[in-house]
Specification:
It is found in: Cytoplasm. This protein is α+β, with helices and mostly antiparallel strands. It has 18 helices and 23 strands. It folds into three domains: 272 residues, BirA Bifunctional Protein, domain 2 (2-Layer Sandwich), CATH 3.30.930.10; 108 residues, Herpes Virus-1, CATH 3.30.40.230; 99 residues, Anticodon-binding domain (Rossmann fold, 3-Layer(aba) Sandwich), CATH 3.40.50. The protein has a seven-stranded mixed β-sheet with strand order 3-9-10-16-13-12-11. A five-stranded mixed β-sheet has the order 20-19-21-22-23, sandwiched between helices.
């Protein structure tokens, strides 16, 4: 099945099974704004808990913060967002659609990657076990030709970004015949910059109103609270401040479902270090964060690092952790060495001294910062994309039937356990509800007695429930139940008294944290 079709099915699945809804849908929706349904909010909260606990509980030198969305407008002047928070946009005159010029060029380079991968895939099938992929990539003329074209584009692209050369970005698009996906034409406007911040007014009268912004990132709330947290927490460098919160960007080219939205949620940690030690910590946090992602068991091959072609004005090193989405490898987390830019800027604009006295060095300095930043919504999408699976399984009478299953990591699955009485009589529902009432203090449990047991299994598969417990007449006699495992569909008979222990071992974040 084409990856584009998989993505369409995933989006439809999110709506059908209560994960994600279009915001204000009864009014035809609001573009690039989404609501999380009953299962979506559980999955999202579990992702946030996995991140928060791994940051704050597992690190003695990382503490939490919850800063306000509204901040003094000078904060955004100091941070550079007022003057430099822009995207390069280009319009197609025929379709009237607007695109990010840098994304069009990145997609163009991805096409050359796909061509090379296709050649490799064909050769691997032809040569079998004797195939040497590295040698093939180095010697095959078609692969080398596509690689050369990609490298030419990449070189021009990087230079244009560094020089802020918008005309060159348009020329790359024209030179390589990039067409509008809607109209199929190359009738492009010039590239221009567009500021992404939402603004509003705070105050009771028009004359006395103060122009403020909806924050485009959560990091600045941490920087302006650096002294508050450091002093009240008696924190010693190196230390970090973690925060989860909403951010807002007026994305003109919002697309790909919840991957790029106008209202989204971030999980950020700013780690403050002594000057000169930032690159050592940058490498350390790269390693830690990649291990965090891979520990969820979605497959190590699904992740990769991608170093930035152009560094932000405040950074001296930056990389992204990318996940293989149905539409290609895309960023889910950024790790940046932000130098001392942020604290120095706020010191200058506020007139307040923002330094740290280092008792070991006997001197004061403005700390440097290493940032890790995840989009919660992108993380959510990566988990669903990696978990979505369509399978053919053996049904009744040995006939093949299909099932859609979300093979979510059990620790973040919305519902951990479904308890299903085989029939709605003979005391089976009463026993099932007793089990739910006992286990609901430990796990998110669901009781379901409607339809055949097979249909109930399929419903739980579709929302990613790792365990289903079936209560039958034997359960009344010997206090045992059948536990069904989602991924293998294997069933085993266990004592009711063993359920808590069996499930705890698989869904406990504590067990996962031990491997970090």
């Amino acid at each position: 099945m084409a990856q584009e079709d998989v993505f369409k099915k995933l989006v439809a699945h999110c709506k059908e099974y209560g994960f994600v809804f279009q915001s204000s849908e009864i009014y035809d929706g609001l573009a690039a704004v989404y609501d999380y349904g009953q299962y979506g909010v559980e999955l999202k909260n579990n992702i946030k808990k996995y991140w928060w606990d791994s940051m704050v509980l597992l690190n003695d030198n990382v503490v939490g913060l919850d800063s306000a969305i509204f901040m003094h407008p000078t904060v955004w002047k100091a941070s550079g967002h007022v003057d430099a928070f822009n995207d390069p946009l280009i319009d197609n005159k025929d379709s009237k659609k607007r695109y990010r010029a840098d994304v069009l060029i990145e997609d163009l380079m991805a096409k050359f990657d796909a061509k090379m991968d296709k050649e490799v895939e064909k050769a691997a099938k032809r040569f079998g076990d004797s195939f040497d992929e590295a040698m093939f990539r180095e010697t095959n003329p078609r692969v080398q030709e596509n690689l050369k074209k990609k490298e030419e584009i990449h070189s021009r692209f990087v230079k244009a970004l560094h020089d802020n050369d918008l005309a060159e970005l348009k020329k790359i698009i024209e030179d390589y015949d990039v067409v509008c996906p809607i109209s199929g034409t190359k009738n492009w406007t010039d590239v221009r910059q567009f500021n992404l911040m939402f603004s509003t007014e705070m105050g009771s009268t028009a004359d006395g109103a103060l122009k403020v912004f909806l924050r485009p990132e959560t990091a600045q709330g941490i920087f302006v609270n650096f002294l508050n947290v450091q002093k009240t927490g008696r924190m010693k460098i190196p230390f970090g401040i973690a925060q989860i919160g909403k951010a807002f960007r007026n994305e003109i080219v919002a697309r790909q479902f919840i991957f790029r939205m106008r209202e989204f949620e971030q999980m950020e940690m700013q780690f403050f270090v002594a000057p000169g030690e930032e690159l050592k910590w940058f490498e350390k946090w790269k390693e830690v964060r990649m291990k965090w992602h891979q520990s969820l068991g979605m497959g190590e091959h699904k992740y990769r690092f991608h170093d930035h072609d152009k560094l932000a004005h405040y950074a001296n090193a930056a990389t992204d952790i990318e996940f293989e989405m149905p539409f290609g490898f895309k960023e889910v987390e950024g790790i940046h060495s932000r130098t001392d830019f942020d604290l120095t800027q706020h010191q200058e604009y506020s007139g307040r001294k923002i330094t740290y006295y280092d008792p070991e060095k006997g001197e004061s300095y403005v700390p440097y910062v290493v940032e890790t930043s995840i989009g919660v919504d992108r993380m959510f999408l990566s988990m669903l994309a990696g978990a979505y699976c369509e399978e053919e399984v053996e049904g009744k009478d040995g006939k093949k039937e299909s099932r859609v299953v979300l093979k979510l990591p059990p620790v973040i699955a919305p519902v951990k356990l479904a308890v299903l009485p085989l029939v709605k009589k003979d005391g089976l529902p009463e026993m099932a509800k007793e089990i739910v009432n006992d286990l609901k203090f430990h796990f998110n449990c669901q009781y379901d007695e409607k339809d055949s047991i097979g249909k109930r299994y399929r419903r739980q598969d579709a929302i990613g429930t790792p365990f289903c417990i079936t209560i039958d007449h034997q359960s009344l006699e010997d206090k045992t139940v059948t536990i069904r495992h989602r991924d293998t569909m294997k069933q085993e008979r266990v004592s009711i008294s063993e359920l808590k222990g069996i499930i705890s071992e698989k869904v406990s974040m504590t067990e996962l944290f031990k491997n970090l």
